Amino acid sequence: MLPAVRSASDLPRLRLVGGEAAAFRRQDRAALDLTDAQLVALVSEGDRAAFESLYRRHSAFAFGLAVRIQGSAADAEDIVHDAFMRAHSSLTTLKDQEAFRAWLGSIVVRLIRTRLRRRKLLTSLGLQSLEPVDLDAIAAPTADPESRVLLAQVYALLQTLPADERISWTLRYIERHRLEAVASLTGCSLATAKRRIARAQSFLEAHFVPPFSKDAP
Amino acid sequence: MIDDELNRLEKASLRDYAGDVRVERVWQRVNRSLHQPRPRVRLELLWAPAFGVALFALGVWVGRSGTPHAESAPQLVAERTTAREPIQPATTSAAPAGAEELVATPPASAERPRTPARAASTHELARMPERATALRDLPAPHAVAASGPPDWQTSADVGDFEAARAALLRAGGWDVVLISASAEQLMTLVDLARASRERDLAVRALRRLLDVFPSAPEAPLAAWTLGNLLEQGGDAEGSAEAYALYRRLSPAGDFAEDAAARQVDAALSQKDAESAALLLDQYAKDFPNGRRLAELREELAKLSHEPSAEAAPSAAAPVEPAPAPPQ
Fold first, then answer.
1. Ranges A19-28, A192-201, B118-127: which has the least confidence
2. A5-44 pLDDT, tens per residue?
């Protein structure tokens, strides 16, 4: 494990000089498995290969987050693209470089929230139809039928909730983030995050029917 | 209930996007975008559209100020009335099998004041497939103020309690806001009060929520929080009542076991062995594997072996001087 570094200047050996040396450095970095903080420091100095490493490391997380919060893969590519572009352009504002993943997650969540609100507005105006839940995008191909039915029901209920509650609940119960992480990702206080989750949970508890139980229709 | 189901859901049941072809496709886009020079906005070119927009806005304003409101007002009122109209309970003829259970589930909210409902939710539900169609006619889960949240709530929601308090003062102060606040806003007020260590204000907001919105989704959490605050304030009786209320509102809630145990705690702290024993029995019945059963039984046993409250004063009473021996 490498010691944490504050900036790329702490890594003189890894400074880029271009050409073959750059290619070598790329391999070197991959072999050394740099930390996020080290990669962020390199990106801040204009290293695009380091940015690609960050993308490779966190894109699946961002993609999964986008799909699972929305309940469909619609626009997930746009969201991930925009999130990484924003991350790249405002990387200098990231204070804790090791927290790149959480910071990226908060960008993704903000983009999704904007999209969900816009979609709700357009739907209420009759300008857009409601997006159906894309179960194949959420559940793994190997998921058992019980899990698929459970997810289908949960997501159908989630669609009726306001965006903030839906996002907070999904982050807590589907993504399994801690409450503090949910608050951080959604950019609100811990108390607000708890309240949003509690409201969503209360609604789901009231309307959820366990799959394959005798009460299930 | 839903917790148990979700706990059984394995992480592997969710799709993993590592190595997905779309991830690679997005990288190609990101890479292209990074290589493209960013368009520079020339500020001087913005003057023309800005001037046009300002001119248009001025025209609209002049037009509106010169138009009598008599014709437009009734239409607006009619629209609002429609939006506020309560949604009727589901008719079983339209709902699929099993919808009866779903419809019967939400708590009665007859006493709850109606606020503008989420019209979009019913619209959305109308297009949802299968099981969700049973929810079509349920009342909207949450009311949303038509004019958007007040400033103090917006600030509090992002954790800026200082700005929230300032906005609260601008809105007329605590008493004014408390009366008109929704259940959600009352919980925000509780947060504000707790952040500034004003327990009494928090307790007032919580009591108001439980009085006015007893069937709101926030009510169980409010009862639990009230119990905590009263317990911290030394009001054992009040906290026991709040915990009991929590258990009634949310018998299978996250804090149900804790609430049961804390009811016993409250009785023990009041040296009420009889009530403590009854509550402990109930706790053991509801939670046979309760985490605090052994500890509370021990506490109760200790209390039962202590000298009774009536006996204690006589021991501590000043000793009468012995009568003088007969001469």
1. B118-127
2. 444 444 433 333 344 444 445 545 553 578 888 899 888 8
Residues of A (33-92) whose Cβ lies below 8 Å from B: 48, 51-52, 55-56, 59-60, 63-64, 67-68, 73, 76-77, 80-81, 84-85, 88
The tens digit of pLDDT for each residue in B9-67 reads: 777 788 888 777 888 888 888 988 888 766 665 666 777 888 888 889 888 888 877 65
Nearest-10 Cα torsion for A34, A37, A43, A45: -110
Q: CATH number for the domain including B208? A: 1.25.40.10
Q: Is residue B23 part of a domain?
A: no
Structure tokens at B102: 């779903």
Q: Which residues of B touch A140 (CB under 8 A)?
A: 12-16
Is the ipTM above a cut-off of 0.90? no
Per the structure, the complete domain to which residue B123 belongs is given by: 112-144
The structural architecture, per CATH, of the domain A1-136 is Orthogonal Bundle (1.10)
Q: Are B185 and B290 contained in the same domain?
A: yes
Question: Cβ of B102 and A207 within 8 Å?
Answer: yes
Q: Measured between alpha carbons, how far is B313 from B301 in angstroms, rounded to an integer?
A: 22
Query: In chain A, where does the domain assigned CATH 1.10.10.10 lie?
Result: 139-217
What CATH code would you report for A139-217?
Answer: 1.10.10.10
* Same domain (yes/no): B122, B261: no
Which residues make beta-bridge pairs with B139?
none
H runs (alpha helix) in chain A: 19-32, 36-44, 48-70, 76-89, 100-124, 135-138, 145-158, 163-169, 179-186, 190-207
Residue predicted with more confidence, A67 or B18: A67
